[in-house]
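The methods section describes the discrete structure representation at length, but only in general terms. Each protein is reduced to its one-letter sequence and a matching series of backbone shape codes. I believe one specimen quoted in the main text would settle the matter. An entry of this sort, consisting of the sequence and the corresponding backbone structure tokens, reads as follows.
***
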Amino acid sequence: MGAISLINLTKTYRNGRGVRDLTLNIESGQVFGLLGPNGSGKSTAMKLMTGLLHPDEGTVSIFDADVQNNREQALIHVGSMIEAPSLHPYLTARQNLSLIQNLSTDCLTTRIDHVLALVRLTSYTNDKVSSFSMGMKQRLGLAMALLPNPDLLILDEPTNGLDIEGVAEFRDIIKGQVKAGKTILLSSHIADEVERICTDVAIISEGKLKCTANVDKLLEKYESVEQFYLDFIRAEGGLAS
């Protein structure tokens, strides 16, 4: 079953940036990485997928439901973290999660303790978010995405602000979600991160989808995903030799 389907998706800002004619299919069970430099359109694409932006042209479907015309049905099984997490700084970690839990009809209160433990924030449950470091805020944002136990996770640069230990823990969380049958879409500008986490990758640059590939098949031909990425960008004329 297809998890995400983009067809000719276009959104252009006044400065000319955005995304143009994105067509992409992500199957259930994949860990799919959007790889590209900052400003390449990754966040815009994810905002379009989650209904935070309306496309100029094209369509987005999640689990066969059209996001633009049937947003509630399309996103009912989606957890997301787009750009910086939207947190209430003068509420505690638990209170931030409770706001989301109260809006979910089938999300039990016990899920709050579960996701806080998952992201290693149990000791900070009752601390105000205003005292959190960037990495802790990123962990809480991930907890918020995980709280409704979604079938699909859409995560924009999820390891920003995390230290080495935090990045390793994030990988373990993703592996656990995959074992539970979840589908993951994440964006990154770091090729090594995509290689370690993802089953499949798409390169996006200047708002355009350049190519898609299976990570294991790439590694049969290239030393690393980074080497493939650099070779591909050079071939496109985006890097000096």
Q: What stands out?
A: The chain has a mean pLDDT of 91. The longest strand covers residues 2-12. The two ends are 41 Å apart (CA to CA). The longest helix spans residues 164-179.
